[in-house]
Amino acid sequence: MLESKIPEGNLADKWDNYKEHVKLVNPANRKKLDVIVVGTGLAGASCAASLGELGYNVKSFCFQDSPRRAHSVAAQGGVNAAKNYKNDGDSVFRMFSDTIKGGDFRSREANVYRLAECSANLIDQAVAQGVPFAREYGGYLNNRSFGGVQVSRTFYARGQTGQQLLLGAYQALMRQVGANKVKTYTRHEMLDLVVIDGKAKGIITRDLVTGEIERHAANAVVLASGGYGKVYYLSTLAMGCNTSAIWRAHKKGAYMSGVSWIQFHPTCLPQSGEHQSKLTLMSESLRNDGRIWVPKKARDERKPNDIPEDERDYYLERRYPTFGNLAPRDISSRAAKERIDAGCGVGVMKNAVFLDFSKAIKEQGKEKIKEKYSNLFKMYDKINAVNAYNEPMLISPAAHFTMGGLWVDYELMTTIPGLFALGEANFADHGANRLGANSLLQASVDGYFIAPYSIPNYLAGELKAEKITTDHPAFAEAEQVVKKQLQQFLNINGHLSADHFHKTLGKLLYDGCGLSRTKDSLEKAIVSIKTLRDQFYKELKITGDHTINSELEKAGRVADYLDLGILMCEDALSREESCGAHFREEYQTPDGEALRNDHDYCYVSAWEWKGADAQHELHKEPLVFENVSLTVRSYK
Q: 473-603 has which CATH code?
C-alpha cells in the first residue's frame, strides 16, 4: 500500500502539525550523519546548503563542471508567491486552488497547499540572499501575471529569474563548502543506487573527467536531478539533461508516478531544420503583453505586417475570452497545434504561430516593453536576426517540463526508505499540468523549507543503525552491474550512434505520446519503441574505450530513455481520460476540451519495476478532495 503520510488536521494546519511533531537530531549527533545530494540545481543546491548549515556532512554531486550550470539557470519568467502585493485578491488559498485546478485535480491537496503556504517565505529568503527582483519606482517588489491565473503573483528578475535564484542558492552552497560541511563532486554522474536491507545507503558514480567508477556511502540519499523532457530529443532542456538518476533508482524499487504527464511549453522557438539538437525557450512572461495569432487563411504566404487585422485569428482570445493569451500552458499548446494542423501555421516549416507586441508597444511605448523584456528580445534577434519590436516573433509548442517523476510521500521520500526526491525529479505538486512560475517555487521550497525537516525526521531513526561503508558487498555488487553495462555497450560494436536512437525515439514519442495521444498511437509507439530497443542492443556503435568517453556515457542515458519511453506510453494507455497535459483524443468535449473521468481515474499512478522484460505493476494512490470541488477545468 502507498502511504502518503499526510498529517492530521485542517488543511491550513497540516504543515505546522507536521513540524511540531517531527523527530529531531541534536547538533552533536548531526556531525555523525552523512547525506548524499545528487544535483545542484535549485532543489539540490538549496537542500545541500540547508543540511550543511544544520551540521550534517553532505556530499553534493554535480553533472556539470560547476553547480552554476545546473538547468535551473534556464528558467526565465519568474517565481510565484502569494504575497498579494498588488492587492488584487490573491491569498494562500487562491494560489492553492489555482494550482490544484491548473493540475486538473490530479495532485494532493496537502502538498499543494504547503507549496502555496511556503511561497511567501521563499521571496523573503531570496531577497535576503540578494536576488535582484524587479521593483516598482517606489522600491516595492513588482509582480506580473502568468498563465492560468487572474492575479499578479509572479516575482521576476527580467528574463533571468532562474539564473538569479540559482546564484543565491549557489552562494549558500559555497558557504557550506567553505565551512567544510559540504563537499562538492563536479563532473560526476550517478549510475546506480545502493540499497542495503531495503534502505538507500549510497550511490555508484562515474567521474566524467577520468572515467573512474566510484563508491559513496551515506545515511540518506537525495535525488534532485531534474526532469526527463529530453526523452523527446527536441526539447527546451539542455543537452545534458537526462533521466538516469531517477530511472536507476526506479529499477532498485522506487516507484515512478504520472510518467506520461509531459508539459509542452507554448512559447518556444520553432524547429527550423532536421539537424537541430535543441529548441530554445522564450519566457511565458511574454504572453502578458504579446498577442498570439495566425492568419485566418490557411497557407497564407504574406508577411505578418501585411496581413490586415480582420484577417488574423487571435485564437486564444477567441476560444478563451476570460484568460485569453494567458490560458494555461497545456491548453495554449494544444490550441497552437490545432491551428498548425489546420494549415494555418507560419514560418519556414509552417510549424509556428505569431507572438505580436505591436499593440503593447503602441499603448505602452517601446521603452516600457524594453524595460520588461529587453534581454528576451535581444536573444530572439541574436538567434533569428529579426527585430521583434518591428515584427511578430515566431513561437511553437515544445517539450518542456515533466510533471511525472519518482513517487514521494508528504515528506518527499520515495518508496525506498532513506531515498528522497526533490524538485522536478518527483511527481508531487503539479498534477497533470504545471502552472507557469511554479517550477522554481517547488524546487526552492523542497530544498529550503521541506527537506530540512523531513530528512532529519528520517535520520533520527538511523542514529543507532550500523554505520555502512563502501566495503559492504552491496557496493561491490552495484559497481559490477555498472561496469558490466558499460562493457556491454562497448562490445555491441554495431554501426549506429546513440544519437541516432535518441532522435528516433523522440520522433516516435512525439507522434505517439506527444501533445495528443490515442489508443492506436500509443499501442503502435510501444511496439516501435520495443523494436528500437532491441535494435539498440544489436547495432549500437561506441567509439573509444571505457575511460573518458562521452559517447559511452550517452549510451547509458539513451538506454534508460528507451525503457522510460515504453512506460510513458503504457501510463498514457492506462489512463482512459484526458486531463491536463495528457490529452487522449477519444476523450474530449464537443468543443475540443479535455474530458476528465474522476469516477475511474482520480488517483496517482505509481508504477513498480518488475524487470527488463516484464510488465510494470500499477499501484494507485487515491486522491481525496475535501477543500476544493472537482469541477470541469474551464478557462473560457
A: 1.20.58.100
CA dist 358 and 25 (Å) reads 59
- CA quadruple 223, 225, 228, 229: dihedral positive or negative? positive
**pTM for the predicted model, two decimal places:** 0.97
Cα separation of 213 and 191, whole Å? 9
Q: What is 266-400's CATH topology? A: Flavocytochrome C3; Chain A, domain 1 (3.90.700)
Are residues 36 and 165 in contact, defined by beta-carbon separation less than 8 angstroms? no
Residues 6+ apart with CB under 8 A from 87: none
DSSP-derived secondary structure for 153-198: -EE-STT-HHHHHHHHHHHHHHHHHHTTSEEEE-SEEEEEEEEETT
Query: CA-to-CA distance for 39 and 31, rounded, in angstroms?
Result: 22
Please list the rounded mean pLDDT of every run of 10 residues in the chain (636 residues): 94 97 97 98 98 98 95 94 96 98 98 98 96 94 94 94 97 98 98 98 97 97 98 95 98 98 97 90 94 97 97 97 96 97 96 98 96 93 96 97 98 98 97 97 98 98 94 98 97 97 98 97 98 98 93 98 98 98 97 96 97 94 96 92
Measured distance CA(20)–CA(6) in Å, rounded: 14
How would you list the strands of the sheet with 617-622, edge to edge?
A: 405-406, 256-257, 603-608, 617-622
Q: Where in the chain is the domain with CATH 1.20.58.100?
A: 473-603
Q: Which residue has the cell 547525506?
A: 35
Task: Name residue 622's beta-bridge partners.
Answer: 603
Helix axes 109-129, 92-102, angle to 10 degrees: 120
Query: What stretch(es) of the chain map to CATH 3.90.700.10?
Result: 266-400
Whether the CB-CB separation of 394 and 347 falls below 8 Å is answered with yes
- The C-alpha torsion from 100 through 101 and 103 to 109, rounded to 10°, is 20
Tell me the helix, strand and coil percentages in the chain, rounded to 5: 45, 15, 40
CA 414 to chain centre: 17
Q: Which three cell numbers stand for residue 359?
A: 499593440
Rounded-to-integer distance, Cα 451 and Cα 462, Å: 16
Task: Write out the catalytic residue numbers.
Answer: 329
